[in-house]
Amino acid sequence: QTGYIALCYNNVQGGCGGGCTPPANNVCSTGVPTIAVGTSCSYTSGDIYCASESYTASGCPSGLIQDVWYRFTVTSSGSHTVRVDPSSSMDAVVELRQSSCTGTVLGCIDAGGGPGAVENLILLLSNGTYYVRVYDYNNAGNTTPPATTTFDICVIGPGGGTCPDPTISSLTFDPPNPTAGLDVDFDIVIDNVGTA
Q1: Taking all residues of the chain, what is their mean pLDDT, rounded to a whole number?
Q2: N or C: which terminus of the chain carries fewer CB neighbours within 10 A?
Q3: Is 105 in a helix, a strand, or coil?
Q4: How far is CA 44 from CA 57, 62, 99, 159, in A?
């Protein structure tokens, strides 16, 4: 008589066959919470515990991707900051997509600060809806989840935070009336410049 033993391998929390409940925003097509855009950071709590990979990384790779999703709506075009403050063992990666879960990737950030480091993804955005994917960075081949999986996330709109929208107060040319084919020097004076 021959016997069979079922084997499986899965380093995502819960192991093979479950054992934990994925976050409500684990799947982008359902249950994606909306984050309000503010002039200052008002955090929403998040967790990647037991999450799964929606798509392969685009620009910010990781050995293991357990991602969750958020969305926000821009009603005032300009500089926007998506800020993620991860727990002590989580090395957060932030990715932004346009219009939908499968929309164009506008940018991602993993600034290299390591676990617990705050990530600020700063982009000029026009009016519309945007989707944010958050996951943890692991070295290639490393499929071990972080020991802590929680984080806080917020979105800061134009004029908010420490990086206000700059304004050009003067623009001068030398020569003052350039013609085609000439090299032109110009000076720009920018006001209202902050620091990220």
Answers
A1: 83
A2: N
A3: strand
A4: 24, 24, 21, 20
Give 96: exposed, middle or buried? Use CB within 10 Å, 0-12, 13-18, 19+.
buried
Q: pTM for the complete prediction?
A: 0.74
Sheet holding 105-109, edge to edge: 68-74, 128-136, 92-98, 105-109
Residue 140 CA to residue 145 CA, distance in Å, equals: 13
Could you tell me where the DSSP H helices lie in the chain? none
In sign, the C-alpha dihedral spanning 98, 101, 105, 107 is positive
Q: Are strands 78-86 and 150-156 parallel, antiparallel or unpaired?
A: antiparallel
Query: What's residue 12's pLDDT?
Result: 52
Report which of 173, 168, 167, 170 is spatially closest to residue 185, judged by C-alpha positions: 173
Neighbours of 112 (CB within 10 A): 9
How big is the chain by its Cα radius of gyration, in Å? 22
DSSP 52-79: --SS--SSS--SS---EEEEEEESS-EE
For tokens 């990666």, the residue is 93
List the structure tokens of 119. Answer: 């990530």
Angle at 41 between CA 38 and CA 45, to 5 degrees: 110
CB burial of residue 150 (10 Å; 0-12, 13-18, 19+)? middle
Six-digit token pair at 182?
A: 């000439």
Q: Can you tell me the distance from the alpha carbon of 19 to that of 26, in angstroms, rounded to the nearest whole number? A: 16
Of the chain, the percentage scoring pLDDT greater than 90 comes to 58
